[in-house]
Amino acid sequence: MSTTESLEERIECDHDVAIVGGGPAGCAVGVFTARYGLDTVIFDRGRSSIQRCAHLENYLGFPAGVDIETLYGLMHDHAEEAGCEIVPDLVESVERADDGRRTPAAEPTGATGSGDGEGFVIERQEGDSVTARRVVAATRYDGEYMRGLDDDAAMFETHEHDGETHEHFDGEYADHDGSTPVEGLYVASPSIEDRQALIAAGRGARVGHRVIEDSRRERGYPEAVADHYDWMRQESELDDEWSDRDRWREWFDDQLSDDHDIDDDRRVELRERDIDRSFESYLADEVIEQRAERGQKRLLEHVDDELVLEAARELEADRHVSEAGD
């Protein structure tokens, strides 16, 4: 299917990305997809395997470890800050949308996906069903909700135990980047490598990147620029050459192969949108300071008030001692 054809008919979906599971893997996926501009929802019933941990002591950034309630609050706040919607509901099943849900839709104004395949219908335990162009599985132990997508019987594996046959989700079903044989379905968890929270978060970030890359490819971005680098830069690093918009245009056009099938208007649209995104990643010194201060304040929201007051009293006492010494 050519790029032009793929844009003529889109699925009207409630979300670009639906993530099943709001632990480290699921939230990491959501932070990346939502920051890019994909409409992202995370379904989390609070059953993440990390809830079984007494105290997490090997998650980077917490020198004395972190209690699970605080970590969970930080992860969810981060996902919501990035733009995710977090829904406290259990997903009972994920299935392909039927043809009746395919309707012509206008070209989205944001950086949304193309709606490959037929999209998905997510059946919830309590709320109404919703649709999504892409689904990311991010639940550590349970993959039963994906049964309806297992057309080739490759998703689950069987084993014998005490004379009985048991079946469970195959941790090697997905590729290293989370992609699967089911178009539009990705697996961040369960996998064979996500048995530590920090590793699970890293895998989620990798899967999030793959979702973004696929979205960009389907929107017509050439392979050479399909990868997306989410990185804020200092404005002072923007030299004279790359502060010129025409230089970015030249670079982008050079990445296109001679036989690309993107019409000229579409090429210009994608190019200018990407250039805008690149310039927005360069931050002035005062903006960096503002974001640093806001980041510190958001962290304080998760610190016990008494501990904050105690630290303030200690700082005040130290200040008096210092002034007395002068």
Automatic annotation (TrEMBL):
Keyword entries, A-Z: Flavoprotein, Oxidoreductase
Record has Flavoprotein as a keyword: yes
Pfam families reported in the protein's UniProt record: FAD_binding_3
Region (Disordered): 97-120
UniProt cross-references to InterPro entries, sorted A to Z: FAD-bd, FAD/NAD-bd_sf, Ferredoxin-NADP_redctase_2
FAD-binding domain: residues covered: 15-50
GO MF annotation list: FAD binding; oxidoreductase activity
PANTHER family hit by this protein: THIOREDOXIN REDUCTASE 1-RELATED-RELATED
Listed name of the protein: NAD(P)/FAD-dependent oxidoreductase
Source species: Natrinema salsiterrestre
Source organism phylogeny: Archaea, Methanobacteriati, Methanobacteriota, Stenosarchaea group, Halobacteria
